[in-house]
Amino acid sequence: QVQLVESGGGLVQPGGSLRLSCAASRSIFVINSMGWYRQAPGKQRELVAVITRDRDTNYADSVKGRFTISRDNAKNTVYLQMNSLKPEDTAIYYCKATTRNGYWGQGTQVTVSS
């Protein structure tokens, strides 16, 4: 079992930045991959970024060059640095840990608006 707690969401103006954090209840060193997903009202949940134990990363085309996923194994925490935010980035952002099963955090709201 893995419990995940996201934080760092909030209101930001277009072009601004936010950093999301995902704190895990166990060492993320033994978790195959950690990822960030997002879901806007009425839309499907979509993958934003993922990072593996080997520190390989993948990003959705819509966020490449703007978002960066990273991890701090000592703190059991994964981060999502979001720069140059756009209104279409508005969504609930969820952290996911994948081992044999997938585990989800509760989500944190990101709203990009002037």
Describe this structure in words.
The chain has 114 residues and is mostly beta strands. It is 0% helix and 52% strand. It has no helices and eleven strands. The protein has strands at 4-7, 10-12, 18-24, 33-39, 46-52, 57-59, 67-72, 77-82, 91-98, 102-104, 108-112. The strands form two sheets. Strands 2, 4, 5, 6, 9, 10 and 11 form a seven-stranded mixed sheet that branches. It has a four-stranded antiparallel sheet with strand order 1-3-8-7, with no helix packed on it. The protein is globular and about 40 Å long. The mean pLDDT is 95.
Itemize the secondary structure elements and their pairings.
Elements (H helix, E strand, L loop, with lengths): L3 E4 L2 E3 L5 E7 L8 E7 L6 E7 L4 E3 L7 E6 L4 E6 L8 E8 L3 E3 L3 E5 L2
Parallel strand pairs: 2-11
Antiparallel strand pairs: 1-3, 3-8, 4-5, 4-9, 5-6, 7-8, 9-10, 9-11
Largest sheet: 7 strands, mixed
What do the pLDDT scores average to? 95
Share of residues in helices: under 10%
The outline comes out as globular
Number of helices: 0
N- and C-termini, Cα separation = 40 Å
Topology, number of strands = 11
Q: How large, in whole angstroms, is the Cα Rg? A: 13 Å
Please state the structural category.
mainly beta
How do the helices and strands follow one another from N- to C-terminus? EEEEEEEEEEE
Q: What fraction of the residues are assigned to beta strands by DSSP?
A: over 45%
Q: Which residue ranges are poorly predicted, with pLDDT under 50 across at least 5 consecutive positions?
A: none
